[in-house]
C-alpha cells in the first residue's frame, strides 16, 4: 500500500493481494476538469449505466450493445418497486462529514492515470442503475460550494472490488469527477453489493487542488444507504447473493456503528428505473 493507505487496516477486512500491474480503462478521452452532470431523469441514468466507463454527456463512448445491456439490466430486476425514498439528516445540514478509514481497496495507484477522470464508472458491470451526487460545501464559509476533485470507489453487485484478488488489472466502479459550479460531483454506476464484514457503502476521497497516488487529500469518508432501499435492490433477481447476512444494521457495522446521520444518502427512484443517491459533504476549509 502507498502512503494513502496507512489506516486501511483499522476497521475493514484486508485484501489477499494488492498487485496492480496494468489497467484497462475504456475511455479514450483525457480531460483535466469535468463539469458534473446536472440532474436528469432516472430513465437517463438507466440508459447510461453500461456505457463502458465513458465520460459524461455527449462524450460517452458506449456501444449500442452496452446500452442494450443496460436496458436489459434495468428491466430484469424483478421486485416490488419503491417509488421514492429519502433518508438523510445530513443533506442540507451544513455539518462537517465524519472522516472514515480509506479501507483496504482504494487502488490509489490508479489516481496517476488521467483516464480515471470519468462520469460513467460502471464499465461492463450489471446491476440496478445508480447515479451518485456528492455536493461539497464549506461549513466555514456559509456553506458555499467547494471546487475539488472527488474520487469514489465501491464493490460491484457481487461484492468484488476492481484491482484486487481475482480482479487485478480491472477498474470498474472507480472514477474521479471535478465538481460543477454548485459543488456537485456526479457519477453513473450500479448499486453496490455487499461482502463479509460491511454494510452497503461507497468510499470517497476529496482532493482540493490536484489528485494522484501521492497527493494529499482533504477528506476521506464513506456514504451509506437507507436499508429499505438496499433490501429492495437485493431482492431483485440481479443480486443473486440476496440480503446481507454478514452485517444487518448500522449499529453492527464497524464503520457506521458510531453514527451514520451525516453519511446517509437521500435516495430516490425504484429498482425498475434506477436510483439517485445524493449526499451533502461538509468540509471545514
UniProtKB/TrEMBL annotation:
PANTHER family: INTRADIOL RING-CLEAVAGE DIOXYGENASES DOMAIN-CONTAINING PROTEIN-RELATED (PTHR34315:SF1), PTHR34315. One of its GO terms (molecular function) is iron ion binding. Residues 1-27, 59-92 are annotated as: Disordered. The keyword Oxidoreductase applies. Gene3D superfamilies: Aromatic compound dioxygenase. This is Protocatechuate dioxygenase. CDD domains: intradiol_dioxygenase_like. Coiled coil: none annotated. Keywords: Dioxygenase, Oxidoreductase. It comes from the Bacteria. The lineage of its organism: Bacteria, Pseudomonadati, Pseudomonadota, Gammaproteobacteria, Cellvibrionales. Residues 1-23 have a biased composition (Polar residues).
